[in-house]
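One record is kept unedited as follows:
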Amino acid sequence: MSQHHEKEELLEDELIQEAEEAAEEYEAQEEIIEEYQEEISKDENKIAKLQDALARSQADFDNFKKRTERDKDDMVFFLKADIFKKILPRLDDLERIIKNTPAEMQEWALFEWVVTLQKSLLKDLNKLWVEAFESVWHEVDPEKHEVMTQVPGEEWVIIDEFEKWYMISGRVLRVAKVVVWNGQ
């Protein structure tokens, strides 16, 4: 063999060896890339689970805030209702006095004071979101009326009330006690 030919063979062997080394290095890098991809996939799954847990926790917290606010509103309502339910019978008494005072006594200063006191109490209650409602000539609504007496006449129309019904902040505070026609 000639020297030239030997050099070519040596060069060829070196190239083959370099190619084999490059192939081995490429395979090693592919394995590393696969390991990283598996880790990335696991991390993406963990991230998805954490995002889901975070979304659930946020929803739970929002529900907790709403429930707490609703419970607070209920507590305030019941506390106010308890106080106002103690005041309303006195207001009913004043209204009965006004309604049943004979005409000749309605000129007295004491009667005028009772009327002024009754109007003042109603005004103060309105400032505290308590509203009184008339029931006479309306149909009976079980949510707002308690039928105390029935008399012959058009069915379920209220003709008189013993006590008015009241609402506070859009909720029934006290139902009206009413007299209705019974439809006979």
Remarks:
- Residues 129-184 form a domain with the Nucleotide Exchange Factor Grpe; Chain A, domain 2 fold (CATH 2.30.22.10).
- The CA atoms of residues 51 and 57 lie 10 Å apart.
